[in-house]
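Quick one:
INPUT:
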């Protein structure tokens, strides 16, 4: 139920004015009349008294009986003068002298009045004492009667005039206020109409109205300010809804819209357009190692570069974390490829963020409308396939081709299977022994994983490690395998304190601080001595990010964990540089070793590497030894440790235990 009814401003104003005047008018009327009544009655009485005074003056001293006729004449002339309707001279013996004009006295019965309109006889009677001569013992008075009719008529007419004046006044007031109301109402109505237009979503018309009333003027100014704020807010909200907050580029929502526009435009104009899908390579590494703050800045810089390098008519959008898409209107295959290559070039220059110098690369997949799809969804799917093709084959940019789908399908299936294998014990840990040429004894082993695929059988790490890295499952895999092995090797290392277990740590997850924390947890839970654990990392990861690597490696080292540089020789690092890091072991890559002879080009490299490492106090492992001749060469070069098929293939833990029982001594292989 409504408690208060609402009324318009004009009805409020007019009814208020009417109400006030309804109360005011009778009061005004009564006051005016009573004032007038009082003053005119007083005037009337004064006038009567004055006439009575003049008459008594004229009459006084005259002789009562001798001048009787003169007395009557004076009375007659008084009657003739007008409004005297009764007059006589009256003595205390009730005799009276009357004027000749009988009318003046006939039928009038004298009753003295003290005020006007007394005794309902229409006459104001008054008495004044009169001194006449000739009447001993007689006293006289002059009795007068004045007609009240003219006075009453005058009052009546005043009453009518007053009513008319009051009515005119009320009318004037109502008209005046109606006019004022109109002047207030008009700008208010205009403001209301404009506000309604805004409420309907049209923000364009200004909320300004001209008014000389300051309150309305200020109200209009305030509303106008509100409109501008609303416009700004609406613009901001629209930008937020359609643009990516970080880079300011269109987001997926706006991008999808532009894609549909591009399709219908190209349909009408019978022209082609290209869809480019750009994905930054290894962007996750930047985020994981340098933090999201740096990652965000890198994205902003790259988005800016890409945006600047494009035509106005093209759309570049950020559609995922490190994924951008570009719609190029009216271009064919050749131009699309050229532009994609230009984009790759734009990404390449060094990026300086917060004191870090970074290099980014990108892979671009291209799909062309209508050749590679007629709908935005299909085009995007095909650009995605082409992008993966570019990424997996290090092509930079790649244009979609139907053959890519089958390759991609297999890869997708494998990724899917791999995800499910994690945590299902579908991995097998193999161990390859490592022997110490100085002590002549087995001194450790390297953990090498295999994936037991339910249909495809054992899959080599070269195939599944990249998948694990790509799917961000590598950390989980490393920890899972470490957990299994440290438990197994605890007794082995306790029995032989110089025995070390080496595990490979992928460059992708080394710099993730979570790895160290998880590994330390596992070491503690398995009660495994950390000094008997070696992590193998490739030199490239150090070269790519020296500052962060030093930090992390120092942390490992402080916990007692040893660090080995794996695949040494395949990168471009110098030993002198690596010396700055807490490294205890160098593993010369098998490509230098397997075919090694004294005449081969690798021989001086291997020889120098061993000598230099020794100078720096670093021990050297040669991996990939398959023959006794290579073994002998390395032995002569004072290599510290050896590993390879010649001594043992990667094997299960049980097989390793047997191997250790039988082959702990190097002598067994050379005799
Ligand atoms: P890697 O660290 O260089 O490992 C040595 C590779 O050389 C192993 O291949 C091993 O089986 C092979 N090998 C050992 N002796 C010989 C030999 O005498 N001749 C020849 N030709 N090859 C030999 P595998 O097991 O296929 O592993 C390949 C790579 O996969 C490894 O290279 C390592 O980088 C990676 N990997 C293996 N397991 C893991 C793991 O658990 N985590 C990570 N992140 N990477 C792993
Ligand atoms: Ca290794
Ligand atoms: Ca290696």
């Amino acid at each position: 139920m409504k408690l208060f009814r609402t009324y318009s401003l004009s009805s409020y104003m007019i009814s208020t004015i009417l109400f006030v005047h309804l109360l005011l008018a009778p009061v005004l009327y009564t006051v005016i009349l009573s004032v007038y009544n009082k003053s005119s009655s007083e005037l009337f009485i004064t006038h009567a008294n004055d006439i009575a005074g003049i008459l008594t003056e004229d009459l006084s001293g005259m002789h009562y009986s001798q001048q009787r006729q003169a007395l009557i004449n004076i009375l007659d002339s008084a009657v003739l003068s007008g409004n005297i309707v009764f007059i006589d001279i009256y003595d205390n013996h009730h005799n009276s002298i009357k004027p000749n004009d009988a009318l003046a006295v006939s039928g009038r019965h004298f009753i003295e009045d003290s005020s006007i309109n007394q005794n309902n006889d229409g006459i104001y009677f008054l008495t004044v004492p009169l001194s006449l001569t000739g009447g001993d013992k007689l006293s006289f008075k002059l009795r007068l009667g004045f007609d009240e009719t003219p006075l009453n008529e005058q009052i009546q007419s005043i009453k009518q005039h007053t009513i008319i004046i009051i009515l005119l006044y009320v009318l004037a007031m109502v008209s005046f206020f109606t006019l004022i109301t109109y002047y207030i109402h008009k700008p208010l109505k205009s403001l209301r109409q404009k506000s309604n237009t805004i409420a309907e979503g049209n923000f364009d018309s200004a909320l300004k109205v001209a008014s000389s009333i300051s309150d309305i003027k200020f109200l209009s100014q305030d509303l106008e300010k509100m409109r501008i704020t609303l416009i700004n807010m609406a613009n901001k909200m629209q930008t937020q809804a359609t643009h990516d907050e970080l880079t300011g580029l269109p987001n997926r929502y706006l991008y999808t819209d532009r894609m549909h526009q591009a399709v219908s435009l190209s349909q009408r104009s019978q022209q082609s357009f290209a869809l480019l899908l750009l994905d930054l390579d290894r962007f996750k590494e930047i985020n994981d190692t340098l933090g999201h703050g740096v990652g965000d800045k890198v994205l902003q810089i790259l988005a800016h570069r890409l945006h600047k390098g494009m035509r106005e008519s093209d759309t570049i959008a950020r559609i995922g974390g490190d994924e951008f898409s570009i719609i190029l209107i009216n271009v064919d295959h050749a131009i699309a490829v050229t532009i994609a290559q230009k984009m790759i070039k734009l990404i390449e220059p060094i990026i300086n963020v917060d004191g870090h110098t970074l290099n980014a690369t990108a892979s671009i997949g291209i799909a062309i409308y209508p050749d590679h799809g007629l709908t935005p969804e299909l085009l995007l799917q095909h650009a995605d396939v082409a992008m993966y093709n570019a990424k997996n084959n290090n092509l930079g940019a790649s244009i979609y081709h139907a053959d890519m789908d089958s390759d991609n399908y297999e890869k997708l299936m494998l990724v899917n299977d791999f995800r499910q294998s994690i945590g299902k014990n579908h991995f097998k840990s193999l161990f390859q022994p490592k022997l110490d040429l100085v002590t002549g004894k087995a001194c450790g082993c390297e953990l090498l994983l295999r994936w037991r695929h339910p249909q495809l059988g054992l899959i080599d790490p070269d195939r599944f490690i990249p998948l694990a890295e790509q799917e961000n499952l590598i950390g989980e895999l490393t920890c899972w395998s470490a957990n299994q092995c440290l438990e197994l090797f605890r007794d082995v290392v306790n029995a032989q304190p110089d025995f070390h277990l080496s595990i490979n740590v992928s460059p992708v997850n080394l710099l993730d601080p979570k790895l160290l924390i998880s590994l330390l947890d596992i070491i503690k839970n398995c009660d495994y001595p950390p000094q008997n654990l070696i992590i193998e990392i490739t030199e490239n990861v150090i070269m790519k990010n020296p500052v962060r690597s030093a930090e992390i490696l120092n942390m490992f080292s402080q916990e007692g964990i040893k660090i080995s540089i794996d695949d040494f020789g395949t990168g471009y690092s110098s030993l002198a540089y690596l010396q700055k890091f807490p490294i205890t072991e160098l593993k010369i890559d098998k490509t230098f070793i397997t075919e090694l002879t004294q005449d081969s080009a690798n021989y001086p490299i291997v020889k120098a590497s061993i000598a230099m490492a020794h100078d720096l106090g670093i021990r050297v492992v040669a991996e990939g030894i398959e023959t006794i001749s290579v073994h002998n060469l390395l032995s002569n070069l004072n290599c510290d440790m050896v590993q390879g098929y010649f001594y043992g293939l990667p094997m299960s833990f049980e097989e390793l235990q047997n191997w250790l029982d039988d082959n702990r001594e190097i002598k067994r292989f050379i005799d």
